[in-house]
């Protein structure tokens, strides 16, 4: 039983506020905001998503820099509330095209309409974008997506790659196109977040892929869709042989540890031919989530060295090698390396002919930062830095610095080799041929090299 | 809330507006628009309404415009209608008389052609929350429940619960619960069914406090026909309603194993759902259904492992947080389960700190012989982390692993290496850990002291770390060459020491050092006591005075007090009791798991009625020897609800103090225990006669005194139990004490046993079994249930002793099985009591 739902801006302004049961004392939004803002000031920690103040339970998620919050007085499932909050954010995005403070403020009446239908007297009703359509009477007011910072995993397609129609991902499910006619199209995105930790000697300590097949459909008339994955896709590893699948880089079969599916997915023939059948609902939704710990070839090799160079000086060498094919380009790469706390200055030396690279020494957080606009597959880049210390180092520099962390996005690349073999839309007529977009992208979740 | 910018008068995109003048301006405009028939009047109204709602959202009081809003509400524009309904819903309470004005058009809309309008109007009508308008609600609700549109029925079924909250009697008089129940069991729309279930549970749970009929109705919701009916339709429900149905199913008591397997097979594919809430709700069903089948229960653990790990990675960080909390709970019950998946809990760079902290807890919990080396290595990497809070937590995690571990040797080395890192917070955290480690493993003192001795106390700023160092200096002063001199220099700087905690430790450390190395410390001791006596802090002053007088009285006594031989600590007091863990497990998939507290600790009394325990206990009656007396009629309601839920004891120190505290409650004269003594049909004089336990009392008292001094460790050598247990023929335990004990004691035994077929057949009501057990000297304190399931709480007392045995016994007459949970003051004899109890139970119906 949810008592209240509200959305707060980063400054604590109420953007929407709905009380469903009138049982929580006044001022809950302010109490919440104060608690979250000053959770643990000394330690600069983030507030956990669930906490209790004076008998009121506050559950929140952060989406697009906004706090989506529910309060409840009863002992209810936190997972349900957290999922619901994410879902409300997603449904709102489906309707507004873009989800951010500006779009919410412009469309808050529409959001109230949604909230009226999504929750009644604290009980979740429907969160299906499609089912909600018949109860939403406001037209969304569009905001200019171009100026907005990209949000959500799909937004990454907007940068760099020319093949993508930039507006598609920010299109509302209810708004009409300028031409009046809706474009028939469907997007299938294979989004993989990868986590790799390299030891100081370059050996891979841990590696994991958390992947999602995300779908966004703008097809009219709800046709059935068949989505075929790798035929030899394996699921679930037999307990004992945890570390026996070491040949994946040689093109062996893909073995997922586990996966789960959206409600609409029919798995009748999945065990036979690895094909998913579904009638996609409107809006954006994950068709399948999967997890893989089978060893894979990491897209980048990172080498980091720090060496003493005199009594209060040190030299840092960072090297990145892109281990993927030359027709793939990674973009928005950031490499960060914490340096000893007594570092005063850093001077950088980029490789000769470096383009689109910037460096910075963040004094506050004692961190070197190296940004690269793009990295073409097969290339190698190096950065040298000279550090000046305010005192003599204690001798063990590697314990004072690092680990190196890397952030990147690689469109049209997937580390797991999971593939959509084909995407079939059951035909309504011979001329019916909607646009189909199958897109792959790999993102760094935690890409760490230790010193 | 501070407005961002003053909005222009007719902005199409109202941002946060401001102030009182705004409200009166809005009123003005609304008045002008009220009668307007201009072609763009609706558009203008929309703009003004938007601004009103925007003010309302920002927290500005716009209730003054109520009359004007209502005047403008007669419109056919749905967007306007909705805004108006929203406004009226929020402010009607404050303006009950004006709210009456809206009734008219809401009622009219309830009869509209368009089902959307009907639903909308009905929902708003029920949301007014104005008590004197309830008479207008009943008719539209009753028709709404029969509406041809599922949308309207959906709204009406929730509306019934809303009405119940405004006026209980109106809702019940209109017989709405019966209508809801009929609808729940027949409607074709799954959301209508789900809403009926929500409303019924809410209404009957609240009603159950006053009405037995309602309590029985709740029972029927958990009965096989209803649960199976809902489960068979599970895929029709929205994912949120599925969660609710699964929650209901998790409390279902199956009558045989086939039912359990049927349910599990039916729900198997729910474990692959992308919605984490559905997966967790399903897991709860699986875990609770298989509680009594150890091997299947184990299989369930294996089965749910992969889906849970996927949820950790797939969802938002917030969702991983919630799932990790549940994983942590599971790991506490089955530590081996995830021991080979430890890498899944390594911290990732992008994890927020609340996820990292939980992962550290997970790593601590799953560390065992096979993975400790890897886990500790990983944790050591975090210790040098730039993220200081996580670095601290990591060091603590290493320490905890050391305290629970087998291969302490390697870990001690790692800890000592931390001290060489020369970061002040690392050193401070490590010192605290080394101290705790030494309290548990004194044999390591030699290695640790060598390293600790090299640390300069000047380099430690944090009071906790400094206090730990000083404690070690005092405790191991015989092994540390410089100890007296280091302490002396610390005493010299007494005035600069900010923290009273450090000064207290310093006092004690110097005392200890004095007894071990008197000549070297004598000077320092004098200075310390002088400084302590002059201290402004009360505790420091008092302790200094105490030591001073003690020394004056007799140094030998002082030594015994300050420097007694110490036993190694085996379990630190902050470890949570298993009883609490069990309760949290019962509340799987709820906030309890996140807070690591049972729900009664964080929900207020007012709302407690709606929770899990009360549901299956509301139907219990207090068992009495003479059911025909007044007592049986007068149900001990308060106690029913509170049974197992006692808040009186925080239970933090249960593990250590259970012996002591329970003995003291025995001694309370029965006539002091309040209303409960009225219920136990024995008079105080009888009680006195029955219990010839004088000598044992005094023994118990001594025992608890020992415990107070920390000498009697919980597992005091129990006298070898006699081969056969005999029970006190007339034990006395009042319900209050029972309840308290049940909350305090750990579970000794959990077993399943069978009844004879005759016994199962003759169990028509609880009384028959109660009488039978009484003849075996086992008394009943509370009982309840409906065929085929009965629940009893029994107790027995060892003859000639004060130790009690408490039993929760759930009997299913259909399967002739009983599930026993036994708790005992004296755990060593629990098994023989169980044997005795089971033999008594098996004879039921045979005589």
CA distance, first residue to last residue of chain B: 76 Å
CATH architecture of the largest domain in chain A: Sandwich
* Spatial strand sequence of the major β-sheet of chain B: 1-3-4-5-6-2
> With helices defined by DSSP (H or I, 4 residues minimum), what is the helix count of chain B?
44
- Using the coordinates above, name the CATH class of the largest domain in chain B: Mainly Alpha
Task: Quote the beta fraction of chain A.
Answer: 35-45%
- State the separation between the terminal residues of chain A, measured CA to CA: 50 Å
Shape of chain A: globular
What's the multimeric state?
heterodimer
| Secondary structure: helix percent of chain B | 55-70%
What's the structural domain tally of chain B?
4
Report the biggest beta sheet of chain B as strand number plus sense, adding barrel if it closes: 6 strands, antiparallel
Structural class call of chain A reads mainly beta
The number of distinct helices of chain A, counting runs of at least 4 residues, comes to 7
Describe this structure in words.
The complex is a heterodimer of chains A (451) and B (847). By secondary structure, chain A is mainly beta. Helix content of chain A is 13%, strand content 41%. Chain A has helices at 28-37, 78-96, 101-106, 108-118, 129-132, 270-273, 397-400; strands spanning 4-8, 14-19, 50-53, 56-63, 66-72, 119-120, 123-124, 185-198, 204-217, 225-229, 234-235, 255-256, 258-261, 265-266, 275-278, 283-292, 300-308, 313-322, 329-338, 343-350, 357-362, 367-376, 380-389, 404-411, 420-425, 435-449. In chain A, the strands form six sheets. Chain A has a nine-stranded mixed sheet with strand order 13-16-9-8-26-24-19-22-21, covered by helices on one side. In chain A, strands 2-1-5-4-3 form a five-stranded antiparallel sheet, with helices on both faces. In chain A, strands 14-15-10-25 form a four-stranded antiparallel sheet. In chain A, a hairpin with a 2-residue loop joins β3 (50-53) and β4. Chain A is globular, with a radius of gyration of 25 Å. The termini of chain A are far apart. The termini of chain B are far apart. In chain B, 60% of the residues lie in helices and 5% in strands. Chain B folds into four domains: 19-249, Leucine-rich Repeat Variant; 317-455; 477-565, no CATH class; 619-847, TATA-Binding Protein. Chain B has a six-stranded antiparallel sheet, sandwiched between helices. Chain B is built from 44 helices and six strands. Chain B is mainly alpha-helical and 847 residues long. In chain B, α20 (372-383) runs antiparallel to α21 (388-404). The chains are: A mainly beta (451), B mainly alpha (847). Chain B: This is Beta-adaptin-like protein. Chain B: Residues 725-842 form the Beta-adaptin appendage C-terminal subdomain domain. Chain B: Adaptor protein complexes are heterotetramers composed of two large adaptins (beta-type subunit and alpha-type or delta-type or epsilon-type or gamma-type subunit), a medium adaptin (mu-type subunit) and a small adaptin (sigma-type subunit). Chain B: Residues 1-18 have a biased composition (Low complexity). Chain B: It is found in: Endomembrane system. Chain A: It is found in: Endomembrane system.
